Amino acid sequence: MKWVFAAFGIIAFFVIVGYAISVAKRKSNVTSKTEKPNGGIMIETDKKLLMAAYDGDAEAQFKFAKACKFKDSGKYIYWLEKAAEQGHEEAIRTLAEEYDHGNKVTEPPIKKDKKKAVEYFTRLAEKGDAEAMKSISLIYFVEYKDEDKAREWTEKAANAGDIESMIELGDNYRLLADVEDFDKAEYWYKKAADAGSGEAMKGLGDLYCYDEKRFDYFKAESWYKKAVAVGDYFGYVRLGDMCKEGKGCAKDAGAAFEYYKKAADNGDVYGKIKMAEAFLGGEGVGRDKPKAIEILNAATKESSLAVYRLGLCYFQGDGVEKDYKQAFKLFTECHEFDDDAAYRLGECYYNGYGVKADKEKAKEYWRKSAKFGNEDAAECLKLYFGEKIE
Description:
Blueprint: H1 2-33, H2 47-54, H3 58-68, H4 73-85, H5 89-101, H6 114-125, H7 130-142, H8 147-159, H9 163-175, H10 182-194, H11 198-210, H12 217-229, H13 234-245, H14 253-265, H15 269-281, H16 289-299, H17 304-316, H18 324-334, H19 339-351, H20 359-371, H21 375-385
Helix pairs in contact: 2-3, 3-4, 4-5, 5-6, 6-7, 7-8, 8-9, 9-10, 9-11, 10-11, 11-12, 11-13, 12-13, 13-14, 14-15, 15-16, 16-17, 17-18, 18-19, 19-20, 20-21
């Protein structure tokens, strides 16, 4: 019997040795495979994860891609694409975002590729992903300057339930002359308002308050109050404007100021600016220019409009000593966001207010302002340079 056990032991030994060699070879193959996709450096990671990735496990491919991200962008993209081929949504989203924005911190850097970004975002959009639809809309608007296509994707996102897209459509159909449509604006604002959006309620108020064809001040007031009720305190500013301008009521600057104060007391920066303007002009409240300047100074941290309004005070010497250099500084800070500030910069450059006179610079800023609809800038271009903005 001893020879039987001895034989069995020898056989078992060779089986174990054979298995060990087989495992070693498999590990060796896996290691060599990590060097093949797209070339590059060795990636040290969980071998089981890597084996699963090579066996076609999409989640493993995605995880392995993330492990490669900052070491080898070629492998990072390779494994993301492998996972994406199997419908892995996070891999598809990651590829879309990498191609949309590019990535300078990977090695080598990943270059922007808007065409590929649209391709991957579209795969998500086909599954009802509203964020992907919004991303496609933005690419068409910013990259391809195709407003119709951008609006088409915004509408898809709105139909998928995205409230921001509904409001954007409402704004477009209310404010853009080439697509102006009261009924469509009303439809999208109401859809967002029904979902509880105070911004959409305010939009409806604006629609009824300022649309020249279908004024309805009663509805406007109602929607502004609804906006306030859900925490959109800009509604108070609009109610104040209605009182100040006599829309649906007799003009009442005092009542207007009280609404502006309510907005400001609830943290609305536009309410603060309106209060400051009331103190500067003594409208509905006693004139108090130092108080106005104090309010505007504080509001500059929150709003480019407050920066412009404070700059205008220095430009005109209203509530402060006239200081063109300070006015120029403030207009420069906010002109990217305010066409009035760009217009005033043109005025500064043309006349040498606070800066060395430069007619070409003046023309540049007036053009920028006029393109955003500033009529004063357009008039200056026509008057001083014989240039007409279409």
